[in-house]
Amino acid sequence: MADSGSSEGIHLDAFNIFDPEVQQCPHMYYALMREETAAYETRAMGGSLFLITRQEDVAEAALNHAHFSSRFDIGSMDGDSEYSRRLKKLYEDEGGYEPVGTMLTVDPPVHTRYRRLVAQAFTPRAIANMEPVVRELASELMDNLIEITSDGVSVDFVEAFAIPLPVRAIAKALNVPDDRLGDFKRWSDASVAGIGTNISIEERLGAQREVIEFQKYFADQLEERRSEPQDDILTALVNATVEKDTSGVDSQFEGVPLNVSEMLSIIQQILVAGNQTTTHLLGEMFRLLAENPNEWESLRSHPERGGDVAEEALRLAAPTQGMFRIATEDMTMGSKFIPAGSRMVLMYAAANRDPDVWTNPDAFEPGRVNKAAHLSFGRGPHFCVGAGLARLETRIVAEEMSRKLQTIEVTNAEHLRYQPSFVVRGLERLDVTVTPKEVVGRG
Ligand code: HEM
Q: Where do the domains of the chain lie?
């Protein structure tokens, strides 16, 4: 079973991080790694890759940016590999903006400035203001789902619901018009192409061509916001500056606004980090509810449990399985020596099922008390900027399922396939049927 953490009959020798079959069911390998070592060494990307899987270690490493740096910058154009050279030429030929590291791939104090600036655009109030928009989207997509499956025909929940909801929510936040939604989704996918998977140089460059298209669109939009400010995230980014006395930010940046390349990098990260992750979480939440009829029954009669359901789905099905770090100096974890410069992955998905922290860790139990201790949004300076939005979207979807649906069923349960990435994990498709809640007490 794809979600099982049982490692009976499995050996770590069979573990190949890029093997799509391993990625169908990685949890049994994670269980062995957690038991065996503080840092599991595997070969990938031309060298050693150390996977950190225990909850305590992952949480500590995420807080310790001095030793676990985020400057991993995969696929940058600085190197002299064939890919780097061709990437540089592509950006020159197509007039792209040279990619700069902003949040995900820089460390404090540079990182601190970007986070402060982005926080001005992503305020809790701005997120809370999105509730009516997200609810309307969820309600409309749910009604569609009910209609399509009304005569028992199953529909792919990923395609029909889990993709459009976050794409349209973020598009609204960035004020992207409806007729550009298709492009917006394409750009978002291009931005994550190749992360945690083995795709060819040609495929990577093809994706980068689409990223340049994205850059040009948003560079124009940002220019427009300068002359015609609106009440949106783009305008907030254009206007954001850090003032004096903001702790942790280098004083040379006081009052300095973001340049276009930096703003584009931030917008791209919002797409990259926010779309597929939320899509994957919504698919997994549906699957988990369908596989656990008692929990579905409980949610159905208590919509207010939507937040708990969302949180436990996050723990169990962490869409961001792991995130890279670089060792800044020689270190030892447990008995494992990790030389300076090594690549590591903080395996959030493995940490979330650590039996030292959770009883019955592979079970879906929205009622458990410590479910929010999961690391699905990371921890420390890189803690997810969009956690509030992702939680809002997932809770609202759970609530709308509860309010509108009577039964839910997965019809391809025997053939579920996960996308073959060890970084962003989620279902390729999820065929479902649903029936509407019976209306009682009328007439
Ligand atoms: C279920 C949905 C989501 C999951 C599981 C998720 C997960 C994560 C994780 C684990 C990190 C930390 C990376 C690290 O440790 O280096 C992160 C960072 C980030 N997330 Fe999310 N995310 C989600 C949704 C979103 C959304 C909706 C947005 C934006 C609207 C977003 C924007 C970001 C950004 C910009 C960062 C980089 C922060 C930094 O490095 O300082 N995420 N996310």
A: 12-436
| CA pair distance 232, 237, nearest whole angstrom | 9
Q: Is the CB of 384 under 6 A from ligand 1?
A: yes
Find out whether 367 and 308 touch, Cβ atoms under 8 Å. Answer: yes
Which two structure tokens, joined as six digits, stand for 256?
Answer: 């300095």
| Cα angle 227, 230, 235; round to 5 | 75
Q: Which of 71, 74, 352, 384 maximizes ligand 1 atoms within 8 Å of its Cβ, making it the mutation to test the pocket?
A: 384
Predicted TM-score (pTM) of the model is 0.92
Residue 382 Cβ inside 6 Å of ligand 1? The answer reads yes
| Nearest atom (ligand 1) to Cα of 111 | 41
Q: Does ligand 1 come within 6 angstroms of the Cβ of 5?
A: no
Fold of 12-436: Cytochrome p450 (1.10.630)
Query: In the numeric block, which tokens belong to residue 372?
Result: 């929010």
DSSP state of 103: S
User: Stretch 279-303: mean pLDDT, rounded?
Assistant: 98
Distances (CA, A) of 285 to 3, 279, 398: 13, 10, 8
SS3 at position 359: coil
pLDDT reported for residue 192: 76
Least confident of 137-141, 274-278, 437-441: 437-441
Atom of ligand 1 lying closest to residue 318 CA: 5
Which carries the bigger pLDDT value, residue 382 or residue 79?
A: 382
